[in-house]
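step=encode ok
step=design start
structure_in=
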């Protein structure tokens, strides 16, 4: 039963916070790339898309609670595709 629980609000906030941190790291804080809203938006979108593809879900909120550490690992190890940057 525990393996099937959906993410709690706290877990969702944790994932969102980690994605923001990684996006800032990828684009570089206060750099022209970071200030480019279009590029920053594409990076956010790609990270969320990567997580959804890995878990085959329509929303990152549909990830099972038992998989949160795996999701964090995927986000932490995210590398932006060259075509995106």
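sequence_out=
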């Amino acid at each position: 039963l525990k393996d099937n629980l959906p993410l709690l609000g706290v877990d969702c906030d944790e994932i969102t916070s980690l994605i923001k941190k990684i996006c800032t790291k990828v684009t570089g804080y206060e750099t022209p790339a970071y200030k480019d809203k279009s590029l920053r938006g594409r990076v956010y979108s790609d990270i969320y898309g990567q997580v959804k593809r890995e878990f085959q879900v329509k929303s990152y909120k549909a990830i099972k609670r038992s998989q949160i550490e795996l999701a964090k690992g995927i986000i932490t190890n995210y590398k932006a595709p060259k075509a995106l940057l």
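step=design ok
step=annotate ok -> The chain has one domain: 2-76.
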